Amino acid sequence: MNKSSIALFSALALFLSACGTPKAVVEQAAPAESTGMVAAKAKFPGYTAADFDAGQALYQGNCGRCHGLYGPRSHSEAQWSEVVPRMVVKANKKAQATVISPEGEQLILRYLFAASN
Ligand code: HEC
What ranges do the domains of the chain cover? Predict the structure, then answer.
């Protein structure tokens, strides 16, 4: 992210918080009975709040290293399923270690699904 995009982002964040609609922030948590959690549980049998938290932690810990974190709603489910595997390769290559395993990749995809529905 360059300086002007950081400034723009800060201005946008200020503007949004001033309006009382911090959408980017709202996306972070999926309370147990949010529509996203209900949809994720229906789609992925056995999906739990702990899975959501684990996916969110992996996403936040690894996916903002080279660029800003994209909001879960910034891409469709089909787009995420194309982008995430591609980015997992990049993340592991950069870390020179398996920081995101195949299971971790699934947790991230499910987190993005739950957080965007
Ligand atoms: C090693 C650096 C690196 C890491 C780590 C990384 N990315 Fe990226 N990402 C890039 C680069 C470079 C691009 C632009 C080129 C491209 O699309 O391949 C990009 C582009 C993107 C895009 C826009 C591409 C599109 O087609 O819409 C998304 C979304 C994205 N990354 C998500 C993620 C997610 C999710 C993770 C974590 C799994 C992640 N990135 C981790 C380097 C990284």
Answer: 29-116
